[in-house]
Design goal:
CATH topology of the largest domain: FAD/NAD(P)-binding domain
CATH superfamily of the largest domain: FAD/NAD(P)-binding domain
Radius of gyration: 25 Å
Distance between the termini: 21 Å
Structural class: alpha+beta
Number of helices: 13
Length: 466
């Protein structure tokens, strides 16, 4: 049987292109040797043009990584394996690679890294130019339909145009998000065919639709900072303020109220977890603390400069805790004076939200904070810092930036991303169950996982064939 390539990479997105470069020793890593005969690497892509998802990311600007990337920025089934993979190719190394390839970068508040051109085409051009120099052909219109691993020596990738034979394959087919860019989730079927389980997929980094009747109803257009926690229904304010409180997901950042729900960084970062619970038939709640970031000495004023909210959330390790009654009472006592409850809240919160909270907590309209009994103060605190929002859906795959779910990271070798069922097959990028929060983290996973998959298959083939 004629061998078409040493390595076939399925998918010409961010992870696939970087995996191909790592296979070819073109990622500036110390393990690459100029004396080694180069591997024959071929990239197969279903679309006619590579990297379409790169071009639409970040509003066409491509948030290619973040200054600070930790395992806590991601949701996955195997955090320890994720930590090791990120360490193999950290954010500073990825940024240095792009800089060396001529992509000058800059940072936004909260660490988002963009090309100075503010044009995603700059990033894609660097990847494609590197592939050309490494003599890596990218074959468009070659939609993979099946992978045959029955031969112990080779892997056959069947496509709509012909079959391709290689010694190893890297699956970087992406997920289901933004199908207009060519994402169709083909890799899930390939994984299942060789014995992997596939975690059910849901849209992530996507706007959320809320059940009618929440405190945000009718407030479309309002933007404000918030702490969101996804927690089981019935979680009390006291439990949320306790030291042992561990929500299913949390985020602290900006949110924009829409006509049927919420969007923006905070909504995006808890969306995948909330939507998975909805898909499982549970009835999750997102508890909103509108005070934690907005309070005068809170964390948000440090970032909200120039009248524009940052396009990312505060890192998990820096998030303020849920506002306790003692903190809220002290703040209101200091700022309220002779103002009504709505007037006092409006010093910190948008006026429309302040009026809605005052209306809902059942305190007489003209009552001042000093005139409220403790029970009334606690109702205001609960309505402001523990407001329940029930997610019921999302904008769907057409609006989702990434996919949550897929091939379990725990079923892959943590050092190589090789399948535990067949070590000739590796997975990287969005097809794997690793979902980063908004801010360049999913691109960093593409670079890190593509590097690990590509470098390790290069090393394995060197050992196997001398």
């Amino acid at each position: 049987m004629t061998i078409d390539a040493d390595v076939l990479v399925i998918g010409a997105g961010a992870a696939g292109l970087f995996a191909a470069l790592a296979c070819a020793g073109a990622t500036h890593d110390a393990d690459a040797s100029d004396t080694d005969a180069p591997l024959r690497v071929v990239v197969l892509d279903a679309g006619k043009k590579p990297g379409l998802k790169i071009l639409v990311s970040g509003g066409g600007r491509c948030n290619l990584t973040n200054v600070r990337v930790e395992a806590s920025d991601f949701d996955t089934d195997a955090p320890h394996a994720l930590r090791a993979i990120l360490a193999e190719y950290p954010a500073r190394t990825a940024r240095a690679w792009f800089e060396a390839e001529g992509v000058s970068t800059y940072e936004e508040p909260l660490g988002k890294v963009f090309p100075k051109t503010d044009d995603a085409r700059t990033v894609l051009a660097a990847l494609l130019d590197a592939c050309r120099r490494a003599e890596i052909p990218i074959i468009g219109g070659a939609k993979a339909t099946a992978i045959d691993t029955l031969d112990n020596e080779t892997v056959v990738v069947r496509t709509e145009i012909r079959d391709y034979v290689a010694r190893a394959v890297i699956i970087a087919t992406g997920g289901l998000s933004l199908p207009k860019t060519g994402s169709q989730g083909a890799g899930y079927a390939f994984a299942a065919a060789i014995g992997h389980t596939v975690i059910p997929t849901v849209p992530a980094l996507v706007n959320l639709k809320l059940e009618a009747g929440s405190v945000l109803d009718g407030l479309a257009g309002v933007t404000l900072p918030v702490r969101f926690d996804v927690s089981p229904e019935g979680t009390t304010p006291e439990q949320r303020c306790g030291r042992k409180y561990a929500p299913d997901a949390s985020a602290c950042g900006s949110v924009l109220v829409t006509h049927d729900g919420i969007t923006g960084p905070a909504a995006f970062d808890v969306g995948g977890t909330a939507l998975r619970a909805v898909a499982d038939g549970r009835r999750p709640l997102i508890y909103a603390d509108f005070w934690a970031l907005a309070r005068p000495d809170g964390a948000w004023p440090l970032f909200a400069v120039g009248g524009k909210a940052p396009g990312a959330c505060i890192p998990p390790d820096d998030m303020p805790t849920v506002t306790s009654f003692a903190e809220f009472d002290a703040d209101m006592t200091r700022i309220a004076g002779a103002k009504s409850i709505a007037g006092a809240l409006a010093i910190t919160l948008p006026k429309t939200l302040a009026a809605r909270i005052a209306e809902r907590c059942g305190v007489p309209p003209g009552k001042t904070w000093s005139g409220c009994a403790e029970g009334e103060r606690r109702r205001v605190w609960t309505a402001t810092c523990h407001a329940p929002l029930r997610p019921i859906g999302s904008g769907g795959w057409d609006r989702a930036e990434v996919t949550s779910g897929g091939v379990p990271l725990g079923e892959l070798d943590r050092r190589t991303l090789a399948s535990r069922h067949d070590p000739r097959v590796r997975f990287c990028g969005e097809v794997v169950n690793v979902t980063g929060r908004l801010g360049g983290f999913n691109f960093q996973w593409a670079w890190s996982s593509g590097f690990v998959a590509g470098r390790s298959v290069r090393a394995a083939l060197r050992r196997r064939h001398g």
